[in-house]
Design a protein that fits this description.
The protein is α/β, with parallel strands linked by helices. It has one domain: Aldolase class I (TIM Barrel, Alpha-Beta Barrel). It has 10 helices and 14 strands. It is globular. The model has no long low-confidence stretch (mean pLDDT 96).
Length: 341
């Protein structure tokens, strides 16, 4: 049985009440173009999508993004840094902290309207204070309309990549959408998801029948897989990437073949320090093989001010969900990426 709570205003109403200022719109347009050009190959820069597993505390996220903005100025000739401001958290068992969208305060109950307002304020401030626009996971496709004017890079998670609505909404987004391989690791399912997202679609979205042009910037993210016994199996290696390349080539209608490597999750077994080694292996493969270099357009890294994780928000800038690299390791790794791409 459903129990109605507070009425949530439409996305149009929320945007009117909390608009992105003109300077923010200018920054976003420029950043969107940078990200698109990497995916299409117009630019040979490298995407680094980096930040906390979940953005649970605005002040800590803003401090992180400000640091990333200063670092971006040092590496902007080689890298496009995109901060992770992930405000929706998938839960394997369906219970627990589900992210800022649902719980703006992780120590208290759900308040979705406050969550939406908190997220918009966070993004608007982050853009103004860092000059960077962010990435988020499109966990709930209907909610995307509340932030579509703020986000430069979207992901579809491993649990959602086979979901029809995620694919349909991704087809209407005009910026890069990375679709993660399903938990099983199935390459055919992943490629079919990219094909669907790149194809024109007609469907119901909110109260409207909508049509889309297809998203030519939809692409694969390799995040590792989980076998039937719950073991993490990495899939960032050369062989899997080349299998993706072959699958792209065999599928008529897919443009801009691209892969982003998620260095955490099942690729690292959530051993956060392994992200450093994994990223270095990706860079080495890019240096050794031109085909690998052409298709691998970036990496995803989970990182925050303080390394590791904690069950409750006690240490400022430390994850309350998956463990993350700390800032010192993150800065060193990003500078090394810039030297080797």
């Amino acid at each position: 049985m459903f129990h109605k709570g507070q009425l949530i205003p439409s996305s149009e109403e929320i945007k009117e009440q909390q608009p992105l200022p003109a300077e923010g719109k200018k920054i976003k347009a420029e950043r969107d173009a940078l990200a698109r050009d990497v995916i299409t190959g117009k630019s040979d820069k490298f995407l680094v999508i980096v930040g906390p597993c979940s953005a649970h505390e605005p002040l800590a996220v803003l401090e992180y993004v400000r640091r990333l903005g200063r670092l971006s100025e040092k590496v902007e000739e080689k890298l496009v840094l995109i901060p992770r401001i992930y405000t929706n958290k998938p839960r394997t068992k369906g219970v627990g902290y589900k992210g800022m969208f649902s719980q703006p305060d992780p120590e208290h109950g759900e308040d979705i309207l406050k969550g939406i307002r908190t997220i918009r304020d966070l993004h608007i401030r982050a853009i103004a204070e860092s000059g960077l626009t962010a990435a988020d996971e499109m966990l709930y496709p209907e909610n995307f309309a509340y932030v579509d004017d703020l986000i430069t890079y979207n992901t579809v998670g491993a649990r959602s990549s086979e979901n029809q609505m995620h694919r349909l909404v991704a087809s209407g987004i005009d910026t890069p959408v990375g679709i993660k391989n399903p938990m099983s690791g199935s390459i055919p399912v992943l490629i079919n998801s990219v094909y669907a997202a790149q194809s024109p679609q007609v469907f119901k979205y909110h109260r409207w029948q909508v049509s889309t042009d297809g998203n030519p910037y939809a692409h694969c993210i390799l995040r590792g897989r989980v076998d039937n016994y719950g073991n993490d199996i990495a899939n960032y290696h050369y062989e899997t990437v080349m299998q993706i390349a072959e699958s792209y080539a065999s599928m008529d209608g897919i443009t801009n073949p691209a892969v982003v490597i998620d260095a955490n999750h099942s690729n690292s077994g959530k051993r956060f320090k392994q992200q450093i080694r994994i990223v270095k292996e990706v860079l080495q493969n890019r240096a050794c093989d031109g085909d690998f270099q052409r298709i691998v357009k970036g990496v995803m890294i989970e990182s925050f001010l303080e390394e590791g994780s904690q069950p409750h928000d006690i240490v400022f800038g430390k994850s309350i969900t998956d463990p993350c690299l700390g800032w010192a390791d993150t800065e060193r790794l990003i500078l090394e990426i810039a030297e080797n791409v």
